[in-house]
């Protein structure tokens, strides 16, 4: 049985707005069930361990999908989610791939988290896929190749667009824009129309543009694991 590590954000404050953030339910639930239903064993981790914060907005009626509805009725998965393991205890040798769901929280904590950075580099250097969707490609802000260049340098990537960030009116709230960061790190950034499903694979890196891209990213990851 293949094993995939999911890494979730613990960050819950949306800058200085007084509003809450966290991870986006669809971006966790859609890949989780797609992989689980195919017999993949999934372990959940986060920087601090325990219950990661759910972005309250992702619970709103407009953002419900079959996967989020399933999650909301799934007490077993909710229980597993409430007990994520601490990132510092994770060893890439125990897994075949790593997946990062998005949500605005990622741009604050996982983008800068030293355990996460080291883990991604370790997966990559051991020829294991690293997948991330929406805001989660923020995890590549500080990751490096063995030669010191950015991990995304010269790689085809995507992630939450400047236009999408503008549409949710958080351009001036987030510490950096995912699209701009990927470009400045030398990534070959492409995108589709705002909110369209879009996933890109380049070698071991698999990235998705927005929440609607969660399942396409998981499908690419599943193919990679076969």
TrEMBL record:
Record organism: Flagellimonas chongwuensis
GO MF terms, alphabetically ordered: glyoxalase III activity; transferase activity
Cited PANTHER family: GLUTATHIONE-INDEPENDENT GLYOXALASE HSP31-RELATED (PTHR48094:SF11), PROTEIN/NUCLEIC ACID DEGLYCASE DJ-1-RELATED (PTHR48094)
Keyword Lyase tagged: yes
CDD domains per the UniProt record, alphabetical: GATase1_Hsp31_like
Residue ranges of domain DJ-1/PfpI in the record: 26-223
GO process annotations (BP): methylglyoxal catabolic process to D-lactate via S-lactoyl-glutathione
GO cellular component, one term: cytoplasm
Keyword annotations of the record: Glutamine amidotransferase, Lyase, Stress response, Transferase
Gene3D superfamilies in the record: 3.40.50.880
Identification of the protein by name: Type 1 glutamine amidotransferase domain-containing protein
Domain of life: Bacteria
Record-stated family: Belongs to the peptidase C56 family. HSP31-like subfamily.
UniProt xrefs under Pfam families: DJ-1_PfpI
